[in-house]
Design brief:
There is one protein chain. The protein is built from seven helices and no strands. It is mainly α and 130 residues long. Helix 1 crosses helix 7, helix 2 packs antiparallel against helix 3 (45-56) and helix 4 packs across helix 6 (88-103).
Amino acid sequence: MKFVANHLVAIHNVATAEAMILAERAGLDPKLVVEMVGPGAGGSRMFQMRAPMMVEGKYEPATMKVSTWKRTWRSSPSSPTMSAVETPMFTLTQARSTRKAMTMGLGDQDTASVFEVLKLSIVKASKAAV
């Protein structure tokens, strides 16, 4: 059960970061986005918890550290049933966020810090496209 819940948490956390970057790039007021999207159909508990941290750029105190999150996934169930299920969204989530956050030295920060990871990735991709 916990594995399934954590799977969703990971995806919602990265989806929140991506949505906040989209809002930022569209010129929307990030605080208004949090206020309006959070309680709506597009919101999630992770959005409500992590989007305000992303707006402020403050990832401490951490409710879930990036380093703890990484350990949680390393020790997740590896039963034949679980390992036989493809999880493409989770795989992308981990490759594009948690691993990079660790290499950027954000291990002690809240998992909301993936916002910084994705912002950096988007800036690099934008420059490469020019």
